[in-house]
Description:
Number of strands: 10
Order of helices and strands: HHHEHEHEHEHEHHHEHEEHEEH
Largest sheet: 5 strands, parallel
Structural class: alpha/beta
Number of helices: 13
Shape: globular
Strand order of the largest sheet: 2-1-3-4-5
Radius of gyration: 20 Å
Helix content: 40-55%
Bound molecules: 5-amino-5-deoxy-1-O-phosphono-D-mannitol
Distance between the termini: 30 Å
Amino acid sequence: EKGTYPHFMLKEIDEQPFVMRRIIQEYQDTDNNLKLDDAIRNAMTACDRIYIIAAGTSYHAGLVGKQFLEKMAGIPVEVHVASEFSYNMPLLSEKPLFVFISQSGETADSRSVLVKIKEMGYPALTITNVPGSTLSREADFTLNLYAGPEIAVASTKAYTAQIAVLAILAVDTARAKDLELAFDPLQELAIVANAMEALTDQKETIEELVRNNLGTTRNAFFIGRGSDYFVCLEGALKLKEISYIQAEGFAGGELKHGTIALIEEGTPVIALATQENVNYSIRSNVQEVVARGANDLIFSMKGLEQDTDAFVVPHVHELLTPLVSVVPMQLLAYYAALNRDCDVDKPRNLAKSVTVE
Ligand code: M6R
């Protein structure tokens, strides 16, 4: 039920802090340690490479998850779009573990890969919001997202839940392998939950940004470097999906290799700047587009902000910034769609789960 909310999407955006807290609770044992099945831990420590298979927003969460698993658990990871994997199957490692990420657990493109790799005899872990779903039943192991039903076609709380669970999985594996930890996931996710709450309280600011900058535009670009780039892909997908504004997410350094030709007077360029190591370079990419007439909107993080930035998100651990920077991206898409009288929860041509290949 939507309750007092005008749309499920807005309700689901607002639920994200609670989802973070529920994940902390569900994955924590009575001694405040992580609680994961031994079987999953064994599969994680036994594999020599992880193949993440997903579609759409879940694929974008996989890109963020790769960073956790490589940087913290020391396992090489490949992230593949499900619909391409079977046709362009890479050379597999000796001991692969397949990780399927899917809100619904019913995406046909992902399922067809699961069927294939099970025939080949490889182990599979599904990370899903629907534990009894097809992908969950047919895999060897399941991790639950605990996000509660997601009704809006545009995925929001499932994306942040997927990233949080991937962080927990990476830290648990790192502990099992006696590796040094980048952070305490439960403590850092609690900080993220508070930051998300602060962000969902700033809807009016985002609404105004949309009104002033995305009102009549035909297109928009999202640029970022490092993990900001992955959030740009998600921000662009969200905007396209529900507002029908043509949007593209780009790696900041890649713009000048072609796409910059599309920048005209007033073209909105949304830049994410939450990563310290690329703060200088992304800001110079913004200067490049501004010099060609772009209307820049910089979303930075507390501690890295400058006076002219459009919006500043609270500070969180640098590996977890996608969890907070995506919230204003979701709200941007929401208000842009609302502005254009679009059917926010049920955009044209789309279904909640895509059960055909
Ligand atoms: O249920 P899944 O996570 O497997 O769905 C995958 C995509 O179809 C889904 O994320 C889609 O891209 C969303 N509508 C994006 O908001």
